[in-house]
Amino acid sequence: MSLRVHRRSGSLRLSVVVLAVLSAQAGAADLPLTTDILPSGVPLPVPAPRFELPPDDDGTRLFGSGWGARDWLARHGLRLTAFDVEEVWGLARGGLRRGASYDGITAAALTAQTGPLLGWPDGLFNISALQIRGRSFADDRLGALNAVSGYDAARSTRLFELWYEQGLFGNRLAIRAGTLDLDTEFLVSQNASFFLNASFGWPLSPSSDLYSGGPSWPYSAPAVRVKWNPLSPLVLMAAVGDDNPTGGPFSGGHGGDASGTRFSLDTGALFIAEAQYWLDLARHLSGSNAPALPGTWKLGALYDSATFPDQRYDAAGGLLAAPSSSGLPLQHRGNWLAYLVIDQMIWRERVGSDKTINLFVRAMAGAGGRNLFDREVQAGLTFDELLPGRPDDTFGIAWGVATYSRRARLHGDDLGRFAIPPGGSRLRPEHHLELTYQAAATRWLNVQPDLQYFWNVGGGTQTTPSGDRIRNAVVLGLNVTTTF
Q1: Is 142 exposed, middle or buried (0-12, 13-18, 19+ CB in 10 A)?
Q2: What is the reported pTM?
Q3: How much is the pLDDT for 41?
Q4: For residues 210 and 304, is the Cβ–Cβ distance under 8 A?
Q5: What is the dihedral of CA 369, 373, 379, 384, to 10 degrees?
Q6: Domain map (residue ranges) of the chain
Q7: What stretch of H or E contains 200?
């Protein structure tokens, strides 16, 4: 299957299953597109109330039919897919220190439909794995809170997802159980995921405020997800699972288990729910004869039952920054985050045209006392077929910011006040702006040059090796994605 399956509203991402149930299609349970194992730079279909999988096309893979092997697998309900992503990033200005870094992944997934394989209708088994390599450009050279790429992750060879899904009532109800990456379906924006900066996939707020960043790429955790399509334009989803995919302590951040096979249930449970509504904006504004302007609007929330450290006060009620403090933070039971996601086509050249302009907005708000970040907003535009004769190319511009919670800001002030001599700088929200262009070099090879600009790098929490404040940064990058 091609990276160019059904050129959609100019966006991309692994959350194909979000769209698949919008169809309540007959047949197997939600068959994920091959792009489900990649966090960015992968096109998705146009949002639609009756999504259909595009026909499989051997010309969109480097190895074609695999000398007939893919055809044999397909007859038995099996599909094997693989991708390779190579990225190079360079710091042109500001940041910690100039220079270049490399990262990359190889990803593979096997799906098995139980209908052709076992005669059991509407069942789907999925297993996938990742091999992640390279160095962290954000840590080594940039010093930013937001990584320049979704592929900026700890080096490992790991199991990604392993689950079974059963469709019921003509797939209007689908139940999935196993080890799941919840950001494949929840809190995802199709258009935002076209961009390479990691925050446009799984945002900075849950990445910083949940244990190990929560079950998000490249991590998964034991979970059960239920999806219901009661009406054609409406989808309701809910999931419950382990909140800590690596099994480490809260302060362990994104470290811990590197294999993806350690399943810990020691910290708490994560509950997440989302309602999605499909609409044709043109039909609402101009009537049935206008060019269709599809969009999906999503409203959701998550709750984590674990305990979370206070951002300013210690266990005795004093200031964490005070010299007399034990350093043990006050613990709060539970944590929450609410969000709104809008993916909307806002312009189309004519009826049936793929030359479109598409908007996304994603806003989040969470509990303040126990979270480092409690507000986050991203917004952007993507442009399909901007250049004549380039129907598979997309250009995009996007911006994002996450703000520190009030207690986190006051704790930063406390640190400066108790320092000897007093000093320090206030925590400031880090902004990032991205310009990117994805070009289809061949039907199986995408090349995506990228420019990102950061200001308030690191939010005031870091300095350069010489002790100076980090200057605003300019980053240049190149992503090359191959479908095998």
Answers
A1: buried
A2: 0.88
A3: 63
A4: yes
A5: -130
A6: 16-483
A7: none
Question: What is the per-residue pLDDT for 30?
Answer: 64
At residue 216, what is the residue type? S
Mean pLDDT (whole number) for 376-391: 91
CATH of 16-483, one of 3.30.420.40, 3.40.50.410, 2.60.40.1080, 2.40.160.180: 2.40.160.180
Instruction: Tell me the backbone φ, ψ of residue 75, rounded to 5 degrees.
Output: -65, -25
Encode pLDDT of 403-425 as tens digits: 999 999 999 999 888 887 776 66
* Residue 98 to residue 414: CA distance in whole angstroms: 32
Sign of the dihedral defined by the CA atoms of residues 442, 443, 447, 452, in that order: positive
Q: Which two tokens stand for residue 332?
A: 């709060």
pLDDT (0 to 100) of residue 280: 87
Q: Which 3 state secondary structure label does DSSP give 280? A: strand
Supply the DSSP symbol for 321.
T
Q: What's the chain's length in residues?
A: 484
Whether the CB-CB separation of 151 and 133 falls below 8 Å is answered with: no
Report which secondary-structure segment, H or E, holds 249.
Answer: none
The token duo for 50 is: 């009756």
Cβ proximity of 435 and 460 under 8 Å: no
Q: Give the contacts of 420 (CB within 8 A, at least 6 positions apart).
A: none
Tokens of 140: 């080594």
The answer for residues whose C-beta is within 8 angstroms of residue 218's C-beta and 6 or more apart is 39, 105, 130, 132, 153, 156, 158, 160, 181, 260
Q: Where are the alpha helices (DSSP H) in 223-375?
A: 281-286
Q: How far apart are CA 208 and CA 370, in angstroms?
A: 11
Query: Cα–Cα distance between 382 and 61 in angstroms, integer?
Result: 25
Q: Is there a contact between 296 and 190 (Cβ–Cβ < 8 Å)?
A: yes
Contacts of 407 (CB under 8 A, 6+ apart): 310, 311, 312, 313, 368, 369
Read off the tokens for 354.
């793929």
Q: What is the DSSP letter of 43?
A: B
Pairing of strands 294-314, 329-348: antiparallel
Instruction: Answer whether 409's CB lies under 8 Å from 402's CB.
Output: no
d(CA 411, CA 329): 12
Residues 341-377 have pLDDT tens digits of 999 999 988 887 889 999 999 999 999 889 999 999 9
Angle 465-471-473 from CA coordinates, rounded to 5°: 105
CA distance 200 to 254: 18
Please state, in angstroms and rounded to a whole number, the distance separating the CA atoms of residues 425 and 421: 13
Q: Burial of 230 by CB count in 10 Å (0-12 exposed, 13-18 middle, 19+ buried)?
A: exposed
